[in-house]
Amino acid sequence: MKEVKGLRVDKSSALPLYEQLRQGLLSAIMDGTLPSGSKMPTEEELCETYDISRPVVRQAYNALIESGHVERKRGIGTFVRSSNSRGRFIDKQMSFAREMAILGLPHRTEMIRQEWLKGEDVRFGDITPYTGRVWHIVRMRYAADEPFVFVENYIPEEIFPGINKYDFEQHSLYAVMEKEYGVHIVRSLRRISAVLSDQVTAEALQIDINKPVILVENLVYDQQDRPIDMSREYLDAATKTFEFEVFNS
């Protein structure tokens, strides 16, 4: 087999070999080098390619299985786990299209509503990020033809004049920001809370009213530290989970 892109094993490092292998394989899964549903290299292939022992590979694979990133199918091999959960990407700010590409899921977007609003009416906690007009878009997004996330975005006209001319059923908002306006995402503030679904979110997510919904709020900043997007994302709490790694400093 060829080396997995970006995966290196350094025998002179103090980091255990299995942990180097686990981290390298996990990075390949997260960035789509090893896409959702694809077959992982066999233990024998990894041993031969990286000159490591089978117990090292087995320990790395067992850790990835335990964390839910891969699954072992008896008599067939080990595969990147297919999932429509939101969990792997809660620590990243990326477009829906990019997220679905990594998960390997077919997807589509339906525009529900779009309108101009007053920026002073938009709030993120105690922050009022805008003053001028904002373009408000409300969309329902589907993964594998199942409701995935109900999302609304508030985009400032001052930074993105003419933003209302783009079709955000067909185009990625963040791709348009980058390609057409030269604006790049640098950081974001994120708030996660549990709320009860109202009639609008219940109909969009195809659940009953007053059922638990996960609300993810984002305030996104660009390279000039300007707030360029405020979004609210609603996910069905019964079917979506969050998974992310936490490291001690």
What would your notes on this structure say?
It is a single chain. The chain has about 250 residues and is α+β, with helices and mostly antiparallel strands. It has helices at about 15-30, 45-50, 55-65, 95-105, 175-180, 200-205, and strands at about 70-75, 75-80, 105-120, 135-145, 145-155, 185-195, 210-220, 225-235. The chain has a 6-stranded antiparallel β-sheet. Strands 1-2 form a two-stranded antiparallel sheet. A hairpin with a 2-residue loop joins strand 4 and strand 5 (about 145-155). Helix 1 (about 15-30) packs across helix 3 (about 55-65). It is elongated. About 30% of the residues are buried. The mean pLDDT is about 90.
Give the secondary structure arrangement, pairings included:
Blueprint: H1 17-30, H2 43-50, H3 54-66, E1 70-73, E2 77-80, H4 96-103, E3 107-118, E4 133-143, E5 146-156, H5 173-181, E6 185-196, H6 199-205, E7 212-222, E8 227-236
Antiparallel strand pairs: 1-2, 3-4, 4-5, 5-8, 6-7, 7-8
Helix pairs in contact: 1-3
